[in-house]
Amino acid sequence: MTAKKLTRVSLIFSIMGITLIIFLSIFSEPKKILIEDINKNLLDSYVKIQGTVINIEKIRSHESCFLIIRLKDSSGSIDILDYENSDLRLNQNIQVIGKVSEYKNEIQIESKKIGLEND
Amino acid sequence: MIEQIIISIFFGILAGLFSGLVPGIHINLVATLLFINSSSLLSITTPINLAIFIISMTMVHTFLDFLPSIFLGAPDEETALSSLPGHRMLLKGLGYEAAKLTAIGCLIGTIAAMILSILFIKTAPIFYPFLDKYMVFILIILSFFLVLTEKGMKSKFFAILIFFLSGTLGYFTLNLTTIKQPLFPLFTGLFGSSLLTISFLKNVRLPEQKITKSKIKKEEIFKALGLSIFSSSLVSFLPGVGSSQAATIASMFKKISEKTFLILLGMINSMTMLLSFVALYAINKPRSGVAVFVGKFLPNISLNQLYSLFIVALIVSIMAFLMTILIAKNFSRFISKINYKKLCLVILIFLIILTPIISGWLGLIVLAVGTSLGIYCSFIGIKKIFLMGSLLLPVIIWAI
User: Fold this and answer.
1) Which pTM was predicted?
2) Strand intervals (E) in chain B
3) Secondary element (H or E) of residue A6
4) What are the structural domain ranges in chain B?
5) For the residues B26-33, what does the mean pLDDT come to?
6) In B, residues 160-199, which contact A (CB 8 Å cutoff)?
């Protein structure tokens, strides 16, 4: 293959690939799991969980303002950090996609997307 | 107590040897593995020992990291730019000297960072809030300056194109929720496998490598030192800006030779690394992946702990310097004798196997796209640093 041809092929392939990744980032979701299955091995990966809001706490510091939501499902409960400050009520059923992280030895979820439960 | 410290340093050096010499492996990856297993490790050792392990690994990695990027043409994100002067010297048979110059830079940078830290601790709480407030503007201006380093309208246009293409790729890759360690396939593709593929396709043949003594004037070292102090202090507080961008921008202000550039790159690399630990103490914010983990092990790091870590860093740096020289000498001897094409292919296959293990199957798509964009960038002759748009653009978007 000539250099000119290779240049063109690599550009076309890059643009097609970037388009594919844009689609994947919009439409692909992690598998739904139970809260009890979240452990340190999942640190830094994304999970999808579903449950009921049992507590909402608003945290204000001079740098930021966020919610800590306690979410409970049939297997256990976990803290969700919500920097978007979603409008939520107690006992609401929600679905959360977020990243598993750790704070002071406790596993928590940094939410990326919070939605009302649909099934 | 003392035995535990020696054991931590020993394993840290081993881990640094591994992450520094194996192309594509980043210290953050090793630190993540360590952190996942930290609860069981903490039953046999203390947090400070884990921090000592991390700092030893970091220092060895910082020195050795330049070897694969000079000899194999597989730079990772921190040293992407060293591929230019480093590779040029390798093709002239001066690979050993290039490695030695970066190692000298690293060692001087380590010592300078320690002296600088005293000033840093005092001033960081004052200038950091300022930098934080105007971070987006500073990052945009820096990106703009990088574009200006390209000569001619056509090159400037392609530089902007590469910046935005890689930025889009980076932004959406980091947004993927079905991939683990997204930075691994992203950077391996853009900076590693793309160059390896080109070396493979282009039948690169290396000349016999010479073991030469480097003659560097004292003024050149001081010139590099001045530039590195300026750029490292800025970079260690900005997310998304690596040492290669710092070196390019610094070299814009003063004309420097190829050799001085390599020293400068080494200095900036070790300085930013150490200053990121100082930032952890001074402003309570980790500014590098490994500093994040030290911050997790030592949540309220004290000045005494910081200086203990520095003493370890200094001792390890001297050992790392000697190791780099020794390994570079051996690399130089055998690199021109072996089949370079085959070597590149073997490493390429290794990276392709590693990707799904670390990041999952989706990682392979990111790796393929990153590789092809990296190849495109090389073929149109645009500096690889514009591929750092993959990290800079997302950081700018998030900060707005």
Assistant:
1) 0.83
2) none
3) helix A3-27
4) 2-150+213-344
5) 77
6) 165, 168-169, 172-173, 175-178, 180-181
